[in-house]
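Reading a protein record of the kind used here takes only a little practice. The integers have meaning only within a learned vocabulary of local backbone shapes. With that in mind, consider the following protein and its fold in token form:
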Amino acid sequence: MDQQAQIMTMEDRTSVQAITRGEHPDPFAFLGSHPVTGGVRIRTFQPGVDSVAVVDAASDEQVTSLTRLHPDGVFAGTVKDADRDFRYRLRISRNGEACTIEDPYRFGAILGDLDLHLLAEGRHEHAYEKLGSNSIEMDGVRGVAFAVWAPNARRVSVVGEFNNWDGRCHVMRLRHGAGIWEIFLPELQQGSLYKYEIIASDGKLLPLKADPFARYCQHPPETASIVYDPPSYHWQDQAWMQSRGACSQRDAPVAIYEVHLGSWRRHPGDNNRYLSYLELAEELPAYAADMGFTHIELLPVTEYPFDGSWGYQPIGLYAPTSRFGTPDEFRHFVESCHAHGLGVLMDWVPAHFPEDAHGLAHFDGTALYEHEDPAKGRHHEWGTLIYNYGRQEVSNFLLSNAKFWADQYHIDGLRVDAVASMLYLDYNREAGEWSPNEYGGNENLEAVDFIKRMNELVYREEKGFFTTAEESTAWPMVSRPTSAGGLGFGYKWNMGWMHDTLTYIKRDPVHRRHNHNDLTFGLVYAFSENFILPLSHDEVVHGKGSLINKMPGDRWQKFANLRVYFGFMYGHPGKKLLFMGGEFAQEREWNHDYSLDWHLLDDPLHAGVHKLIRDLNRLYRDCPSLHQLDCEPEGFQWIDGGDAENSVLSFLRRGRSNDDCTVIVCNFTPVVRSAYRVGVPFAGTYHERINTDGREYGGSGVSNGSAIESVPVPAHGHSHSLTLTLPPLAAVIFACPGQHLTSGEAHEEH
């Protein structure tokens, strides 16, 4: 130690002690290569190493041995006649085995001034290319660049198996202006596990944190991030990406199949395991396409720790969950959907995040991503924290994430969860539990601004991409452009329609005449937004029962009620959404731990509902009058919306062409109604397109035949009418004379 003491200045001694304790305020100022008189001084910290030598990177020749300055592994030495650009490597020996490595502390800064400026201002739309772990080349050496925002931390280190999870080894450089810590780890392998070890400003060592920008995470309950930056995925969906916009327009048929990947189908013979992304790619897109759906909507697939949250409490917003495979395997799943003509929508959760110790909560020892004030920063009912949308770096984290899924995974749209909880400061709060905004109102102005910016960004940058709001209040203009004062979403879930119509259909038919308004009220506001009619997962959980078990009556009536309800839904203005299992009348309430009950398709009644949904989807797609003006008042006209006594609704759906028209009549009682007159706009032959009481669907087979002629008897304001026999608990859909048919539908008719 006397010799060591002679070669260390007082400043060195203090720095060495700080390095060994992981407390040096700027390790890059001490470690690495630094010019001295007559050469460069090289210092390194290598715990558990016997010796260290310096090797000329160009010649691979040893130029000097380093002296141990501290028993814990601080080594130093001078390379004479070398300049600051001298490229070197370190040859280390441990237990008699030697290897040559790069020194992370010889490399310069990673982030440029423009990146730092944009990140600090919250205007870096591609933040994911700079933060997190990214493979880069520095000074001719391949490796992984790490960067993380933690402005209030005293120290941040990258830890992993590569350094025995020792936070002293790879302490990061702080870029003070932006509060971002960075380091380049040369030659680090893909697949390496890592986390961030953070010491808060008060000196407290925090629980190890996962990377907020991690591209890949360990399978829960393990919580490490994984370096994953493979060569570019070779996408084969260029044709889809160029044309996808036409599939989501207001005049397009949009029929969404909502899916929880973990329980759509499982392997019962293999310990009830999940299907992988690759297995799902083989089965799910083909099934959904055959059923006539246009889009698949995935419950959240961003990494989440707790299976029971279904993904709605995410930890890794930049990582597809590892439950089903790798990120590239998820890309393959998306590509398979596109190959089958299906758009892929993703449930996105910017409204809140969980408090798991390895996540964003108090990330650097302070309320960094969340509000410090629980009145603004916490949802008590969910036990989750609320993003601080007014903080530029936080909003940029979320905005960049929305773009990330479109850019990196070719996702076609986002369904934004719990928008109402973002919009209102008093959401689910009693008086005294919230503070008004600067104008005295209950609107969360920062969240409103964030939502508008998000929608403006994705609609500007991502061709054919669209967003949908799950918004359960009467907030105005949710699906109107921001330029017109709206929030900028493409669509909004029609929660009012869902609630009212389910309330109606659950009633015994004998009482329905007293509640007729539950069916008709939705038409009062049906065109105030671009609506999607949702029968989602939320309606078949938490004791609510499955759709089929909401229906009243005996077994036959339950199925008939469900069929007429589906017929009404597909005739009603608005795009369609159905949660998996509903298409074949799943009887059990949905349970995320089990597969759907596919064996039910062996039962004729379940198989009948399955066929009905397939036929309704195809009719909805083939008939412009059923989708072209879904969001326009010109696309709907009552024939008779007031026949409460008979619990019958009749109405027209219209396309842009004057003679493109469909007649829908729904009988919500189990009574066959004969000689029921319905006014129609044209004389001629009306072809029956769907009768939900058809025997092929499990019905009783009461029918008007495949076609019926109008008669010149005025009714309901029309000069002609049809005299119908209305099947029990059934919807019948007729094509008007001259109705436009697609080539596929015309071929079937021929």
